[in-house]
Amino acid sequence: MPALERLVRExxxxxxxxxxxxxxxxxxxxxxxxxxxDALIAVQELRxxxxxxxxxxxxxxxxxxxxxxxxxVLAREYGRARAARRRARQGLSxxxxxxx
Length: 100
What we know:
Layout: H1 2-22, H2 34-54, H3 67-90
């Protein structure tokens, strides 16, 4: 399956090249939606790592991101969303606390 390995690697390289562009999307939406987009992008990055790890074996089984990694992403972004809601209730700007 060297051809399949090469195809998976090339497609993963292409996805990896475009994923950083997605990191700019959260800045384009309302503050309360940013944690969701950050989580969505982070989970796709985890999935890309899983695809790379599986390589040509994808033909026989899928490539799911590590469960613990996904849970960490969701917990982090859930915490950010709750903090943003609290700040919004207090009248503080989420932009001033946005991570780079």
